[in-house]
Amino acid sequence: PPAGAVEALVHHRLVPVVVLDDAADAPALGDALVAGGLPVAEVTFRTPAARTAIARLADRGDLLVGAGTVLTPAQVDQAVAAGAAFVVSPGTSAAVIERCGEHGVPVVPGGVTPTEVMRALELGVGLVKFFPAGTSGGAPAVAALASVFAGVRFVPTGGIGPRELPDYLALACVAAVAGSWMVPRDRVRARDVAGIATLTRDAVAAADAVRP
Ligand code: 3PG
């Protein structure tokens, strides 16, 4: 249920960000994530397959499925209609956040500056996607932001892989880390269940090894 989606994201501490070229690839992706021990998927609205893929994954009932790269209120409507339990946006848009509020679906807007974080707070959101993390100062920048925004939690995303993951997850202000490294687009397209499951399992183990 949407009310628990954020809690579930925080519980898993990792969010696979998926670009699906063909909704028919969604079942294999879902199988791989479940096998890898991370039953979470943020399906990006960057391909026409996104809506159907969200619906297919959500219908399984064994995955927490959200929509990513949501840029407009119309996409919020589409994501919710497809069954998305949470919405992620690269930036902080009042229109997107308000539409999510109307639907009662949790939203994680993007921000990397104090002004952007304050904008999210003014709009009632305390969980911010720190994106693009790698080129915006990385973990030290997240820690610096957190030092002035007590209570704000971050989801660093963008340019993160196994090497960078521990630096972010060591921060108490980091609720979860998102990224596509466990679900490479070519492997999703190839329906490489074993390969994606291994990458996912490795990410879960790496996350478990790091606590703030
Ligand atoms: C996103 O949509 O959040 C980003 O594409 C994820 O970034 P990454 O592909 O560098 O992990």
Automatic annotation (TrEMBL):
E.C. code: 4.1.2.14
Keyword Iron-sulfur tagged: no
Domain of life: Bacteria
Keywords: Carbohydrate metabolism, Lyase, Schiff base
TM regions (residue ranges): none
InterPro entries: Aldlse_KDPG_KHG (IPR000887), Aldolase_TIM (IPR013785), KDPG/KHG_AS_1 (IPR031337), KDPG/KHG_AS_2 (IPR031338)
Pathway(s) of this molecule: Carbohydrate acid metabolism; 2-dehydro-3-deoxy-D-gluconate degradation; D-glyceraldehyde 3-phosphate and pyruvate from 2-dehydro-3-deoxy-D-gluconate: step 2/2
CDD domains in the cross-refs: KDPG_aldolase (cd00452)
The keyword Lyase is assigned to this record: yes
Catalytic activity: 2-dehydro-3-deoxy-6-phospho-D-gluconate = D-glyceraldehyde 3-phosphate + pyruvate
Stored PROSITE patterns: ALDOLASE_KDPG_KHG_1, ALDOLASE_KDPG_KHG_2
Pfam families: Aldolase
Major enzyme class: lyase
GO terms for MF: (R,S)-4-hydroxy-2-oxoglutarate aldolase activity; 2-dehydro-3-deoxy-phosphogluconate aldolase activity
UniProt subunit comment: Homotrimer.
Sequence similarity: Belongs to the KHG/KDPG aldolase family.
Database matches in NCBIfam families: eda
Name under which the protein is recorded: 2-dehydro-3-deoxy-phosphogluconate aldolase
Organism: Cellulomonas alba
Upper taxonomic lineage: Bacteria, Bacillati, Actinomycetota, Actinomycetes, Micrococcales
Annotated gene: eda
